[in-house]
Amino acid sequence: LQEIPDILSAEFAADPYPAYRAMREKEPLIWHEATRSYLVSRYEDVERIFKDRQSEFTTDNYDWQLEPVHGRTILQMSGREHAVRRALVAPAFRGGDLREKFMPVIERNSRELIDAFRHSGSADIVTDYATRFPVDVIADMLGLDKADHDRFHGWYTAVIAFLGNLSGDPEVTAAGERTRVEFAEYMLPIIRERREHLGDDLLSTLCAAEVDGVRMSDEDIKAFCSLLLAAGGETTDKAIAGILANLLLHPDQLAAVREDRSLISAAFAETLRYTPPVHMIMRQAATDVTVSGGTIPAGATVTCLIGAANRDEDRYRDPDRFDIFREDLSTTSAFSAAADHLAFALGRHFCVGALLARAEVETGLNQLLDAMPDMRLADGFDPVEQGVFTRGPQSLPVRFTPVAA
Ligand code: HEM
């Protein structure tokens, strides 16, 4: 890796894109000792691994990554077990449930957060809005008490710290493991109670769901809710901050979006391509696999570099340019978010919450633009992205004319 900065180095964390380019050009398949995995950076290779038409890859790698903090989730499953579990949960995140039950939840939670700062003339969109909104939405969708949202946030913070604990800090590990226990102590009695009195919320839907005679146990539901904290919280949080940062840094495109809100879906897709919240996803090779002329031996771990694949010049014209008008990225079909960029992965584990995420980001951005018609970055502020496996703006201070209370 002589000319290519190590993916765990400070230089890489500051700006991974030059390293991604060098990998795509010179070493599209390369062994990385520190993560003990093969790094794959080209679009067509990452796409092929995600689609996995020949069943060459498993997600067994997730056992050690996710088990200690979540228990067993659908990300760890494969084959029929995964298909059935996914069919049990997926309908709740699209169609009628999303439109009728959860859109009001999304709108309400976004509005409450914006109302807390719109009279002040300044806010940090990351801390005042983005880190709260998706987790509030999940807690509210599950039908949890508003009074418990702060605890839910505390667990969320501990879980994402655990998953991002690259240096293996023992305190972070211990806090993550404690969260698993506390979360179970909190959720299991609520799940049992909800089974007795089904309501209109997501938890009730999960309790009642049945596919081919299979239902979820209390433990399954608890593990899934725990997964939602990380899968639906941190990702959407970074997508919201990312879309706003990208637009604020490109004022002409922001003006176009303000004028024509239907452009928000294009801005969402382009943000997920250009600055994906999840930069790396791992798989395990089930058999020897040839990728970009090299061999990944059976049993080896593969790190799919979404952040690199989404900037592949063989796939996108001028890939390092943020351009909501680009024609090589689809934004129209229901699953458009999946059609072109790799930010939601593809294939069997394609993000269950893609449409929910899109609804949250579109609603959130619309409300932010309405509430702050002259929102601009705080003077002299240049958004800095942070993170290696997941990545997004660290802070996003904005100024605007306060609305009279
Ligand atoms: C899976 C990204 C929002 C729930 C995934 C995967 C990615 C991803 C890359 C595939 C993981 C893999 O193949 O190993 C994102 C991004 C989001 C987002 C970028 C926001 C912009 C959400 C939301 C939810 C959610 C809002 C739900 C509330 C899930 C679940 C899976 C998943 C449950 C596992 C699916 C399976 O294993 O079959 N997501 N996600 N995600 N996502 Fe998302």
UniProtKB/TrEMBL annotation:
Key words of the record: Heme, Iron, Metal-binding, Monooxygenase, Oxidoreductase
GO molecular function, one term: monooxygenase activity
UniProt keyword 4Fe-4S present: no
InterPro entries, alphabetized: Cyt_P450, Cyt_P450_B, Cyt_P450_sf
Superkingdom in the source lineage: Bacteria
Stated family: Belongs to the cytochrome P450 family.
Protein name, UniProt field: Cytochrome P450
Record organism: Streptomyces minutiscleroticus
Source taxonomy: Bacteria, Bacillati, Actinomycetota, Actinomycetes, Kitasatosporales
